[in-house]
Amino acid sequence: MIRSLLRRLLTPPSPVPPAATAAALADPNAVPGPVTGVELSACTVFYSLLRLSGVATIDPTRFRGEDSARALFGARVLYDGAAPMQKLDVVRVSPDGSVAFTVEALIDRARAIDGAVLELSYEGAASPWSVSTLAKVAGATDMRSILPDFQAEVAAVVAAGRRPTMLDIGGRARSHVQRSEMFPECDVTVLDIVADPGVDVVGDAHELSRYFPADSFDFAMSVSVFEHLLMPWRAAVELNRVLRPGGVVLVHTHQTLGMHDMPWDFWRFSDNAWSGLFNRYTGFEVMKTDLSRFLHIIPAVVAEPIIAFENAGGFECSTVMVRKTGPALVDWPVPLADVVNTSYPQGPDAGPG
Fold first, then answer.
1. Tell me: the pLDDT tens digits for 140-154?
2. What is the CATH number of domain 11-141?
3. Where are the chain's structural domains?
4. Among 58, 59, 96, 165, whose CB has the most other CB atoms within 10 angstroms?
5. What is residue 276's three-state secondary structure?
6. In sequence order, what are the beta bridge partners of 286?
7. pLDDT tens digits along 282-302
8. 243 exposed, middle or buried (CB, 10 Å; 0-12, 13-18, 19+)?
9. Cβ distance 220 to 170 under 8 Å?
10. Do residues 14 and 185 make contact, with C-beta atoms less than 8 angstroms apart?
């Protein structure tokens, strides 16, 4: 579900095989063909449509030029050796022998890409490539994280001979991930609006200074929470109050994602939005931002002005790391209850809207 982002964000990326090894994973006995490599830029399943976009590399000793390559190049999707109804579009052939292509196939959604093979051919010689392996490689490339930078900041404090304190905002074990256990070198305090066995303080991120003294924490982290804060600018000021001078914060949220945890789904953040929350007035400097996991936006009902919106998109993950530079120069003393008369959903009401 949406909370599976937590596990991906907080698990260091594992090594992924280069694209050239994907053929061997599809068929260990396959003989390398004239297509020597392939990288997917998109692997999309939408209902019963599988859409693969990528760039294939042709052996330069076999490449016959741009014009002939369009006729000599082939690509199709196979399931158990059978080809479903599909079409190939050769988008571009480059002088270096790379071919940009798109394959669209009607598939059994229950299988999705399980067992799917992308067969690429040139001059009639074909080689198989595991679609699931290619998708993992593409996904690892697209899923970036600032977490290693944050971990380096923590390690620097530990190396200086001090045990850091950390505040985890919204850190209950959603998707069975207890982030407090991932920083054993820190004294971690977990705050969440919902009581849970791993939660130390039940409270609202808009009122951090109500629960903690000033200058309490060296670090703070918040994952998939800021979209659920009605007044994130107030949370930024409150963070400043409970952080020690020079304290570092990692915030992970979303720039594009479906509505969820209704009615408490308030905001989406681009990488350019963070300076509106974390700046010299709230007492911070932005150290690093990132957008990753590109998503397509497809309208439910086609209309003329938005007919090409499937080419538009956004990013699932928006992350920022900031440092406290001084006290906040602004305040927003507006009680949450004076603005909204609902509460954060729990139980069966906490699912996607």
1. 777 678 999 999 999
2. 2.60.40
3. 11-141, 147-350
4. 58
5. helix
6. 322
7. 999 999 999 998 888 888 887
8. buried
9. no
10. no
d(CA 234, CA 208): 10
Q: Sign of torsion, CA 299 300 303 308?
A: positive
Q: Rounded to an integer, what distance in angstroms lies between the CA atom of residue 351 and that of residue 273?
A: 26
pLDDT of residue 20: 39
| Structure tokens given for 14 | 């594992």
Evaluate the omega torsion of the peptide bond into residue 263 and state whether it is cis, within 30 degrees of 0.
Answer: yes
| Mean pLDDT, the chain, integer | 87
pLDDT single digits (tens) 270-284 = 999 999 999 999 999
Residue 8's pLDDT band, with cuts at 50, 70 and 90, is very low
pTM for the model: 0.80
Paired tokens of 3: 């909370």
Q: How far apart are CA 173 and CA 175, in angstroms?
A: 6
Q: Do domains 11-141 and 147-350 have the same CATH topology?
A: no
Q: Report the topology of domain 147-350.
A: Rossmann fold (3.40.50)
DSSP-derived 3-state class of residue 314 = strand
> How many CB atoms are closer than 10 A to CB 353?
12
With a CB cutoff of 8 Å and minimum separation 6, the contacts of 167 are 188, 189, 191, 208, 212, 216, 217, 219, 220, 221, 242
CA max distance for the chain: 72
The pLDDT tens digits for 117-172 are 999 999 889 999 999 999 999 887 776 789 999 999 999 999 999 999 999 999 88
> What is residue 297's predicted lDDT score, i.e. its pLDDT?
83
